[in-house]
TrEMBL record:
<dbReference type="InterPro" id="IPR030395">
    <property type="entry name" value="GP_PDE_dom"/>
</dbReference>
<dbReference type="GO" id="GO:0006629">
    <property type="term" value="P:lipid metabolic process"/>
</dbReference>
<dbReference type="GO" id="GO:0008081">
    <property type="term" value="F:phosphoric diester hydrolase activity"/>
</dbReference>
<protein>
    <recommendedName>
        <fullName>GP-PDE domain-containing protein</fullName>
    </recommendedName>
</protein>
<dbReference type="Pfam" id="PF03009">
    <property type="entry name" value="GDPD"/>
</dbReference>
<dbReference type="InterPro" id="IPR017946">
    <property type="entry name" value="PLC-like_Pdiesterase_TIM-brl"/>
</dbReference>
<feature type="domain" description="GP-PDE">
    <location>
        <begin position="5"/>
        <end position="239"/>
    </location>
</feature>
Length: 239
């Protein structure tokens, strides 16, 4: 039976509040979600901020890539008006503030690292440095689609759980899982088969599915052994 315990707020609560912002994370906590997922990347001057896209146009009033701007510029962006007028003035959060907020809210954090090419390793190094100097949420799982970033986290902050993100489940999954000592795979729900979660569980790992906004589909995936689903719309899944 699908319950709130199976839900991870995707990019905060992406259908209900502007994605990758503090209001979205706070709403996930108010809805009673055990976990929230966010995306982080590096500014030009080495500050980790929350944003999904490489570029700023879709979710802010700035232009260009995150990577080409200093934090001072990114901090001036409006990351809320594009979503709804009531969120005007919402800022792009810094990751250190998000770690502190999740800790205060008691919500677990799925921290997805989205390095701009070719910054797979230095983005991971910045995350590792921050994790070593900041009070952390009680539950924290790191992930990235970039295996080089997951590998760097394995080397630099091995004490934190790691998941590999995947659009397609790769043939070399076993080798990668063992080398990176993965706790889980985060796989596109569209390519998940009924066999996948049992196969991973047999190998000692969990399977989580993104992004699921349909209640029947979420229930099916949970029935197949998927541990949790990343969702933009938690109320739609719980009915
Ligand atoms: O963490 C995985 C999930 O967020 C899916 O990917 O593109 O929405 O960051 P994306
Ligand atoms: Mg993500």
């Amino acid at each position: 039976m699908l319950t709130v315990q199976h839900l991870i707020g995707h990019r905060g609560t992406a259908r209900l509040a502007p994605e990758n912002t503090l209001p979205g994370i706070e709403l996930a906590a108010r809805l009673g979600l055990p976990w929230v997922e966010i995306d982080t990347q590096l500014s030009r001057d080495g500050v980790l901020v929350l944003l999904h896209d490489d570029t700023l146009e879709r979710t802010t009033n700035l232009h260009g890539t995150v990577r080409e701007h200093d934090y001072a510029t990114l901090a001036s962006a409006d990351a809320g008006t594009w979503f709804a007028a009531q969120f005007a003035g919402t800022r792009i959060p810094r990751l250190d503030n998000v770690l502190e907020r999740c800790r205060a809210l008691g919500i677990g954090l799925h921290l997805e690292i989205k390095p701009a090419n070719p910054h797979e390793t230095d983005t991971a190094a910045a995350v590792a440095a921050l994790l070593h100097t900041t009070a952390l949420p009680e539950r924290l799982i790191l992930s990235s689609f970039a295996s080089a970033t997951v590998a760097a986290m394995h080397e630099l902050a091995p004490e934190h759980l790691r998941a590999q993100g995947a659009e397609h489940f790769p043939e070399n999954w076993r080798e990668l899982s063992e080398r990176l000592e993965l706790e889980a795979w985060h796989v596109d729900a569209a390519v998940i088969t009924p066999q996948l979660a049992p196969m991973l569980r047999e190998a000692g790992m969990a399977l989580r599915a993104w992004t699921v906004n349909d209640r029947a589909r979420a229930q099916e995936l949970i029935d197949w052994g998927v541990e949790a689903v990343f969702t933009d719309a938690p109320p739609a899944l719980l009915g």
